[in-house]
Amino acid sequence: MTTRRKKIYEGKAKILYEGPEPGTLIQYFKDDATAFNAQKKAVLEGKGVINNRISEFVMTKLAAIGVHNHFIRRLNHREQLIKEVEIIPLEVICRNIAAGSLSKRLGLEEGTPLPRSIIEFCYKNDELGDPLVAEEHITAFNWATTQDIDDIMASTLRINDFLTGMFGAVGITLVDFKIEFGRVWEGDFSRIILADEISPDSCRLWDSTTNEKLDKDRFRRDLGDVIESYTEVARRLGIMKDMPTVIQGGLH
Protein backbone atom coordinates (compact mmCIF):
# COMPACT_ATOMS: atom_id res chain seq x y z
CA MET A 1 0.00 0.00 0.00
CA THR A 2 2.62 2.53 1.07
CA THR A 3 4.78 2.03 -2.04
CA ARG A 4 2.04 3.52 -4.21
CA ARG A 5 1.31 6.42 -1.90
CA LYS A 6 2.97 9.80 -1.64
CA LYS A 7 5.20 10.25 1.41
CA ILE A 8 4.18 13.32 3.40
CA TYR A 9 6.68 13.20 6.27
CA GLU A 10 9.28 10.89 7.74
CA GLY A 11 10.23 11.07 11.40
CA LYS A 12 12.59 9.00 13.51
CA ALA A 13 10.11 6.19 14.20
CA LYS A 14 7.22 6.70 11.77
CA ILE A 15 6.39 7.68 8.20
CA LEU A 16 3.23 9.50 7.17
CA TYR A 17 1.74 8.77 3.74
CA GLU A 18 -1.13 10.33 1.87
CA GLY A 19 -4.41 8.75 2.97
CA PRO A 20 -7.11 7.17 0.83
CA GLU A 21 -9.57 10.00 1.53
CA PRO A 22 -9.13 13.76 2.06
CA GLY A 23 -8.34 14.56 5.68
CA THR A 24 -6.69 11.18 6.31
CA LEU A 25 -3.12 9.90 6.43
CA ILE A 26 -1.52 6.49 6.74
CA GLN A 27 0.91 6.23 9.67
CA TYR A 28 3.62 3.60 9.18
CA PHE A 29 5.58 2.38 12.22
CA LYS A 30 9.27 1.75 11.49
CA ASP A 31 11.65 -0.60 13.31
CA ASP A 32 14.17 2.24 13.67
CA ALA A 33 15.16 3.13 17.21
CA THR A 34 16.86 6.41 18.05
CA ALA A 35 18.04 8.09 21.23
CA PHE A 36 19.82 11.31 22.24
CA ASN A 37 18.29 13.25 19.35
CA ALA A 38 19.16 10.48 16.85
CA GLN A 39 22.86 10.35 17.80
CA LYS A 40 22.30 6.70 18.72
CA LYS A 41 20.51 4.56 16.13
CA ALA A 42 19.58 0.93 15.56
CA VAL A 43 17.00 -1.18 13.77
CA LEU A 44 15.06 -3.43 16.16
CA GLU A 45 13.13 -6.01 14.20
CA GLY A 46 9.47 -6.05 15.13
CA LYS A 47 9.43 -2.80 17.16
CA GLY A 48 7.12 -1.06 14.69
CA VAL A 49 4.64 -3.92 14.76
CA ILE A 50 4.44 -3.91 18.57
CA ASN A 51 4.17 -0.11 18.83
CA ASN A 52 1.44 -0.06 16.17
CA ARG A 53 -0.62 -2.54 18.21
CA ILE A 54 -0.02 -0.90 21.60
CA SER A 55 -0.81 2.58 20.23
CA GLU A 56 -3.98 1.26 18.57
CA PHE A 57 -5.03 -0.34 21.86
CA VAL A 58 -4.41 2.80 23.93
CA MET A 59 -5.93 5.28 21.44
CA THR A 60 -9.07 3.12 21.15
CA LYS A 61 -9.42 2.96 24.93
CA LEU A 62 -8.92 6.75 25.23
CA ALA A 63 -11.53 7.43 22.51
CA ALA A 64 -13.98 5.28 24.49
CA ILE A 65 -13.69 7.63 27.50
CA GLY A 66 -14.08 10.74 25.33
CA VAL A 67 -10.44 11.68 24.66
CA HIS A 68 -10.57 12.63 20.98
CA ASN A 69 -7.54 11.48 19.00
CA HIS A 70 -6.36 11.00 15.43
CA PHE A 71 -6.67 7.19 15.31
CA ILE A 72 -9.29 5.82 12.90
CA ARG A 73 -8.38 2.15 12.45
CA ARG A 74 -5.43 -0.21 12.06
CA LEU A 75 -4.82 -1.29 8.47
CA ASN A 76 -2.22 -4.04 8.95
CA HIS A 77 0.72 -4.99 11.18
CA ARG A 78 2.59 -1.73 10.59
CA GLU A 79 0.07 0.83 9.40
CA GLN A 80 -2.92 2.69 10.75
CA LEU A 81 -5.36 5.13 9.19
CA ILE A 82 -5.38 8.44 11.04
CA LYS A 83 -6.98 11.86 10.77
CA GLU A 84 -4.76 14.51 9.24
CA VAL A 85 -4.03 17.17 11.86
CA GLU A 86 -2.09 20.41 11.98
CA ILE A 87 0.50 19.45 14.58
CA ILE A 88 1.12 21.95 17.37
CA PRO A 89 4.95 22.21 17.58
CA LEU A 90 5.10 21.09 21.21
CA GLU A 91 6.05 17.90 22.98
CA VAL A 92 3.89 17.62 26.08
CA ILE A 93 5.56 15.63 28.85
CA CYS A 94 3.65 14.43 31.90
CA ARG A 95 5.78 13.23 34.81
CA ASN A 96 4.67 11.23 37.86
CA ILE A 97 8.06 10.01 39.10
CA ALA A 98 11.49 11.62 38.72
CA ALA A 99 13.48 10.09 35.84
CA GLY A 100 15.55 11.01 32.82
CA SER A 101 16.20 14.69 32.15
CA LEU A 102 14.12 15.85 35.15
CA SER A 103 16.40 13.92 37.53
CA LYS A 104 19.49 15.48 35.93
CA ARG A 105 18.03 18.99 35.76
CA LEU A 106 16.77 19.17 39.34
CA GLY A 107 19.15 16.75 41.05
CA LEU A 108 16.36 14.35 41.98
CA GLU A 109 17.16 10.71 42.51
CA GLU A 110 15.56 8.61 39.77
CA GLY A 111 12.47 6.87 41.11
CA THR A 112 11.49 9.67 43.52
CA PRO A 113 7.69 10.16 43.44
CA LEU A 114 6.80 13.76 42.54
CA PRO A 115 4.54 15.82 44.86
CA ARG A 116 1.99 15.85 42.00
CA SER A 117 1.96 15.15 38.29
CA ILE A 118 4.04 17.76 36.46
CA ILE A 119 3.43 18.83 32.85
CA GLU A 120 6.33 20.25 30.84
CA PHE A 121 6.42 21.64 27.30
CA CYS A 122 9.27 21.27 24.83
CA TYR A 123 9.55 23.04 21.48
CA LYS A 124 9.39 20.31 18.84
CA ASN A 125 12.60 20.97 16.93
CA ASP A 126 15.23 18.23 16.48
CA GLU A 127 17.95 20.64 15.37
CA LEU A 128 17.64 22.49 18.68
CA GLY A 129 17.27 19.30 20.73
CA ASP A 130 13.60 19.94 21.63
CA PRO A 131 14.31 22.63 24.26
CA LEU A 132 12.11 23.13 27.31
CA VAL A 133 9.78 26.13 26.91
CA ALA A 134 7.36 28.02 29.15
CA GLU A 135 3.78 29.11 28.51
CA GLU A 136 5.18 32.60 27.76
CA HIS A 137 7.13 31.27 24.78
CA ILE A 138 4.16 29.25 23.52
CA THR A 139 1.78 32.22 23.48
CA ALA A 140 4.40 34.80 22.36
CA PHE A 141 5.35 32.76 19.28
CA ASN A 142 1.71 31.89 18.64
CA TRP A 143 2.22 28.13 18.77
CA ALA A 144 -0.93 27.91 20.89
CA THR A 145 -3.27 30.22 22.78
CA THR A 146 -3.77 30.33 26.54
CA GLN A 147 -7.08 28.50 26.03
CA ASP A 148 -5.31 25.87 23.89
CA ILE A 149 -2.76 25.35 26.66
CA ASP A 150 -5.53 24.96 29.26
CA ASP A 151 -7.26 22.39 27.03
CA ILE A 152 -3.99 20.51 26.41
CA MET A 153 -3.15 20.39 30.12
CA ALA A 154 -6.64 19.21 31.10
CA SER A 155 -6.54 16.51 28.40
CA THR A 156 -3.02 15.44 29.41
CA LEU A 157 -4.01 15.01 33.07
CA ARG A 158 -7.06 12.99 32.01
CA ILE A 159 -4.86 10.78 29.82
CA ASN A 160 -2.41 10.41 32.71
CA ASP A 161 -5.17 9.31 35.10
CA PHE A 162 -6.44 6.74 32.62
CA LEU A 163 -3.02 5.37 31.65
CA THR A 164 -1.86 5.19 35.27
CA GLY A 165 -4.87 3.01 36.09
CA MET A 166 -4.63 0.92 32.92
CA PHE A 167 -0.94 0.11 33.37
CA GLY A 168 -1.24 -0.19 37.15
CA ALA A 169 -3.86 -2.92 36.72
CA VAL A 170 -1.29 -5.08 34.89
CA GLY A 171 1.61 -4.43 37.28
CA ILE A 172 3.26 -1.56 35.39
CA THR A 173 4.10 1.86 36.85
CA LEU A 174 3.65 4.83 34.49
CA VAL A 175 6.68 6.99 35.30
CA ASP A 176 6.18 9.61 32.58
CA PHE A 177 5.09 9.97 28.97
CA LYS A 178 5.35 12.31 25.99
CA ILE A 179 2.41 13.14 23.74
CA GLU A 180 1.62 15.54 20.92
CA PHE A 181 -1.53 17.36 19.94
CA GLY A 182 -2.86 18.71 16.65
CA ARG A 183 -5.70 20.82 15.30
CA VAL A 184 -8.47 19.47 13.13
CA TRP A 185 -10.52 22.03 11.27
CA GLU A 186 -14.28 21.86 10.97
CA GLY A 187 -15.22 24.79 8.77
CA ASP A 188 -13.85 27.93 10.44
CA PHE A 189 -13.47 26.23 13.81
CA SER A 190 -10.57 24.12 15.00
CA ARG A 191 -10.48 21.49 17.70
CA ILE A 192 -7.37 20.16 19.45
CA ILE A 193 -7.00 16.38 19.56
CA LEU A 194 -4.37 13.89 20.68
CA ALA A 195 -2.02 12.77 17.87
CA ASP A 196 1.26 10.86 17.26
CA GLU A 197 1.46 7.62 19.31
CA ILE A 198 1.41 6.19 22.82
CA SER A 199 3.80 3.25 23.14
CA PRO A 200 6.91 2.11 25.06
CA ASP A 201 8.80 4.49 22.74
CA SER A 202 6.99 7.47 24.27
CA CYS A 203 6.33 6.28 27.86
CA ARG A 204 8.58 5.28 30.75
CA LEU A 205 7.12 2.03 32.06
CA TRP A 206 8.57 0.17 35.05
CA ASP A 207 7.56 -3.19 36.46
CA SER A 208 5.63 -2.28 39.62
CA THR A 209 7.37 -4.96 41.72
CA THR A 210 10.97 -4.91 40.49
CA ASN A 211 11.20 -1.42 38.84
CA GLU A 212 12.63 -3.20 35.79
CA LYS A 213 12.42 -0.88 32.79
CA LEU A 214 10.03 -2.00 30.05
CA ASP A 215 10.50 0.95 27.69
CA LYS A 216 12.89 2.83 25.40
CA ASP A 217 15.36 3.39 28.27
CA ARG A 218 16.47 -0.21 27.62
CA PHE A 219 17.78 1.04 24.28
CA ARG A 220 19.03 4.42 25.53
CA ARG A 221 21.02 2.81 28.36
CA ASP A 222 22.18 -0.37 26.58
CA LEU A 223 20.20 -2.63 28.91
CA GLY A 224 19.33 -5.08 26.13
CA ASP A 225 16.11 -7.08 25.62
CA VAL A 226 14.31 -4.08 24.10
CA ILE A 227 11.88 -6.08 21.94
CA GLU A 228 11.31 -8.59 24.74
CA SER A 229 10.34 -5.75 27.09
CA TYR A 230 8.00 -4.09 24.57
CA THR A 231 6.45 -7.51 23.93
CA GLU A 232 5.95 -8.00 27.66
CA VAL A 233 3.98 -4.72 27.82
CA ALA A 234 1.77 -5.93 24.94
CA ARG A 235 1.34 -9.32 26.61
CA ARG A 236 0.24 -7.79 29.91
CA LEU A 237 -2.24 -5.54 28.12
CA GLY A 238 -3.73 -8.66 26.55
CA ILE A 239 -2.97 -7.87 22.92
CA MET A 240 -0.35 -10.54 22.20
CA LYS A 241 -2.81 -13.09 20.83
CA ASP A 242 -3.27 -11.05 17.65
CA MET A 243 0.42 -10.36 17.12
CA PRO A 244 2.22 -12.02 14.21
CA THR A 245 3.97 -15.25 15.17
CA VAL A 246 7.34 -13.86 14.10
CA ILE A 247 7.13 -11.46 17.05
CA GLN A 248 5.70 -13.99 19.50
CA GLY A 249 8.30 -16.64 18.76
CA GLY A 250 10.82 -16.91 21.56
CA LEU A 251 9.78 -13.70 23.29
CA HIS A 252 7.91 -15.01 26.31
Q: Which class of the largest domain in CATH terms?
A: Alpha Beta
Strand content: 25-35%
State the assembly state of the protein chains. single chain
Secondary-structure element series: EEEEEHEEEEHEEHHEEEHHH
For the largest beta-sheet, the strand count, sense and barrel status come to: 7 strands, antiparallel
Q: By helix and strand content, what is the structural category?
A: alpha+beta
> Tell me, what's the shape?
globular
Average the pLDDT over all residues and give the rounded result.
94
Number of domains: 2
Q: Which topology of the largest domain does CATH recognise?
A: D-amino Acid Aminotransferase, Chain A, domain 1
Number of helices: 7
Query: Which spans have pLDDT < 50 for at least 5 consecutive residues?
Result: 248-252
Tell me roughly what share of residues is in helical segments.
25-40%
Provide a descriptive summary of the structure in words.
The chain has helices at about 45-65, 100-105, 135-140, 145-170, 215-220, 225-235, 245-250, and strands spanning about 5-10, 15-20, 25-30, 30-35, 40-45, 70-75, 80-85, 85, 90-95, 115-125, 130-135, 170-185, 190-195, 205. With about 250 residues, the protein is α+β, with helices and mostly antiparallel strands. It has 7 helices and 14 strands. It is globular and about 50 Å long. The longest helix has 23 residues, at about 145-170. The chain folds into 2 domains: about 1-85 and about 225-250, Phosphorylase Kinase, domain 1 (2-Layer Sandwich); about 85-205, D-amino Acid Aminotransferase, Chain A, domain 1. The model is unreliable at about 250 (pLDDT under 50). Strands 8, 9, 10, 11, 12, 13 and 14 form a 7-stranded antiparallel beta sheet that branches. A 5-stranded antiparallel beta sheet has the order 1-2-3-7-6. Strands 4-5 form a two-stranded antiparallel ribbon.
